[in-house]
Amino acid sequence: MAGDNKTGLDMNFVGELAKRIKDAQNDSLQVAIVCGGGNFWRGRDGLEIERATSDYMGMLGTVMNALALQSALEKAGIPTRVQTSIEMREVAEPYIMRRAIRHLEKGRVVIFAAGIGNPYFSTDTTAALRAAEIGADSILIAKKGVDGVYSADPNKFEGATRFEHLTFKEVLEKDLKVLDGTAISLSKDNNIPLLVFGIDETENITKALNGEKIGTIVDNKED
Q1: What is the mean pLDDT for each group of 10 consecutive residues in the chain (223 residues)?
Q2: Which reaction is the catalytic activity of this chain (predicted)?
Q3: Which fold, 137-222?
Q4: 3-state secondary structure string, the chain?
Q5: Annotated binding residues for ATP, as ranges?
């Protein structure tokens, strides 16, 4: 959400994200989004704050991002609902699985914020859990600075190679940093494939939503 900035919100970038989602919209596509909050706060940054409190602060950052994205999507003409795992009814709905599914069936975009409502769990885990709950066909993971899963950090190691396909088992065995271990296990157990792609070129969002071949696919299928 910070665009080229390191922190805060870049509403031009957020507006571009909304436009790309709108470009991919069709009657058969249902879109749910999980927002992170790293542009405002990362739990590991709170060295002088105990972990649980720091994580809750990060959850509030995800709510700010969700509201900003909701505003941009609705300006683009896309009906959107924000649901939070921590109740704040004045600004968003509480997370209710069946209500979220009903919104999706009505063609609304649903944004999930505030993680799962508990500390010590990442946004990755939130995405995998919500995907399983709403019966998602896949999880699309948009990354800045990288366009898929690599054998090593391509920004640090010149010889790093990008994988086109991996199994969940390979990700765990190779200790590749796609999602955290809990999220990978949830996705594996529920057979929800992942697509990891770069968001620096925002048109990749439209391509990913349209099922075009980009980035790295992670699933249970052996080559």
Answers
A1: 65 88 86 88 72 91 95 95 96 97 96 95 93 96 87 87 94 86 93 92 89 93 80
A2: UMP + ATP = UDP + ADP
A3: Carbamate kinase (3.40.1160)
A4: CCCCCCCCCCHHHHHHHHHHHHHHCCCCCCCEEECCCCCCCCHHHCCCCCHHHHHHHHHHHHHHHHHHHHHHHHHCCCCEEEEECCCCCCCCEECCHHHHHHHHHCCCEEEEECCCCCCCCCHHHHHHHHHHHHCCCCEEEEECCCCCEECCCCCCCCCCCEECEEEHHHHHHHCCCCCCHHHHHHHHHCCCCEEEEECCCCHHHHHHHCCCCCCEEEECCCC
A5: 38, 42, 150, 153
